[in-house]
Specification:
24% of the residues lie in helices and 31% in strands. By secondary structure, it is an alpha+beta fold. The chain has two domains: 91 residues, no CATH class; 96 residues, Aminopeptidase. It has a ten-stranded mixed beta sheet. A hairpin with a 2-residue loop joins strand 6 and strand 7. Helix 2 packs antiparallel against helix 3 and helix 4 packs across helix 5. The protein is elongated. The relative contact order is 0.20.
Length: 217
Amino acid sequence: MPELSTFLREWLGDWPPTGAVTVVGSAVRTQPAWDGAIRDVIGVGTPDGGLLSVPPDHVDAVRASVTGWDDITATLPAAMGRAGATAYLGKFRWTRTPAPLEDAGVWIDVTDPRVPEWLWPFGGEALIALVDDAYAAGVGIKRHNKYGLELSVGTDEAFRGQGLAARLVAQASRWVLAQNAVPIYLHDPANIASDRTATKAGYPDPGWTILGLSARG
């Protein structure tokens, strides 16, 4: 999928990886992300190797310390000079063919009083499923760059188990593809509900991982 490669090159500073762990320095790691926060470490792993993006002045130290993707969460914090931080791995999924599920939501500006607080940081419009004109579920868009848009979904407890999340994710994915971008879905491997939503919405699991480092430490 060419849009995915273009997104990853711009987001990480290079793509694809050329070994077990390819470490690249990118000025993007020193700049505010979609929500205004700076994320100084982002990595994407595939079954054939991973690419780790760090600030340019950390490249040498990270290359000297991080040699494999399997042990990267143990060695990365100290290599970044933040021994008290926690590195974490999640699932990285994308789609070019969302499931043909029925639309479930409408696009509403996040400043609308019906939109819950968790969606406010996304800015712009969120895709909201309304029941009796009140929030039931919603999708926010993390606008990493114009080539890749990440979806984040949440369902009010009273409406869980009805398939709203998968329908919203599939609907939002079709919108992202119409923008000539790739829709991305990231989640904790232990989150069974998120895994189920991704699968139902048409996101296969290619065995890819997303890596980040906590802000603390």
